Amino acid sequence: MNAPLGALADAIVLPQPYLLFLGDTTEPSFAKTAFGLADWAADRCVGEFGVDGCAVSTGLPRMTPAEAREAGARSLVIGVANQGGVIGERWITALVEAMEAGLDVVSGLHVRLDSIPALADAARRTGRRLIDVRSPPPGIPVGTGRKRSGKRLLTVGTDCALGKKYTALALHRAFVERGLDADFRATGQTGIMIAGGGIPMDAVVSDFEAGAAEILSPDAPADHWDVIEGQGSIFNPAYAAVSLGLLHGSQPDVFVVCHDPTRKVILGLEDFALPSVEEVVDLTIRLGGRTNPAIRCGGVSLNTSSFGAQEAEALMAAERERLNIPVADPIRGGTAFAELVDSCLA
Amino acid sequence: MNAPLGALADAIVLPQPYLLFLGDTTEPSFAKTAFGLADWAADRCVGEFGVDGCAVSTGLPRMTPAEAREAGARSLVIGVANQGGVIGERWITALVEAMEAGLDVVSGLHVRLDSIPALADAARRTGRRLIDVRSPPPGIPVGTGRKRSGKRLLTVGTDCALGKKYTALALHRAFVERGLDADFRATGQTGIMIAGGGIPMDAVVSDFEAGAAEILSPDAPADHWDVIEGQGSIFNPAYAAVSLGLLHGSQPDVFVVCHDPTRKVILGLEDFALPSVEEVVDLTIRLGGRTNPAIRCGGVSLNTSSFGAQEAEALMAAERERLNIPVADPIRGGTAFAELVDSCLA
Question: Domain D-glutamate N-acetyltransferase-like C-terminal, which positions (chains A, B) (predicted)?
Answer without folding.
Answer: 142-335
